[in-house]
Write a structure and sequence with these properties.
This protein is an all-alpha fold and 129 residues long. It has helices at 2-44, 48-62, 79-102, 106-127. The protein has a single domain, classed as Four Helix Bundle (Hemerythrin (Met), subunit A), CATH 1.20.120. It is elongated and about 45 Å long.
């Protein structure tokens, strides 16, 4: 009887633990989405402060790398390495967006924003397989 109780508690804690991990991923993704929206508002309003705030929020949310790590279903794919590479690349592009915009090169800043969005979409395609 005690074994059944222990097994039940263990199983439920594992189930709730997986849910918490999924919840953390959802919160991180919502933060990233909000940051991209804020960057876009910076472009639309031609406001460097809004854009800077958006890129800062983006970089902060990117560093929750555990939200990007998924179980690999394909051989030779290392999700931890992929996540680390994407975080570094997106952080660098976010800095480039801010620098280009502040320097007055808004077309380059917008191209970098589009590049960021493309990387987001590529990652979603991998995760949702």
């Amino acid at each position: 009887m005690k074994k059944m109780l222990v097994i039940g508690v263990l199983a439920s804690s594992l189930a709730f633990g997986a849910g918490a991990s999924k919840a953390a991923q959802v919160v991180t993704m919502q933060g990233l989405e909000a940051a991209m929206g804020m960057i876009q508002k910076g472009f639309l309003r031609d406001n460097a402060e809004i854009l800077k705030m958006g890129t800062q929020i983006l970089k902060e949310n990117l560093h929750n790398i555990d939200s990007f790590v998924i179980e690999s279903s394909s051989e030779g794919f290392d999700p931890k390495t992929y996540a680390a590479v994407e975080v570094n690349a997106l952080s660098k592009v976010a800095e480039e967006i801010t620098k280009s915009f502040v320097d007055g090169d808004k077309s380059t800043a917008r191209a970098k924003y589009d590049k960021t969005l493309s990387r987001c979409i590529a990652c979603h395609n991998i995760i949702r397989k």
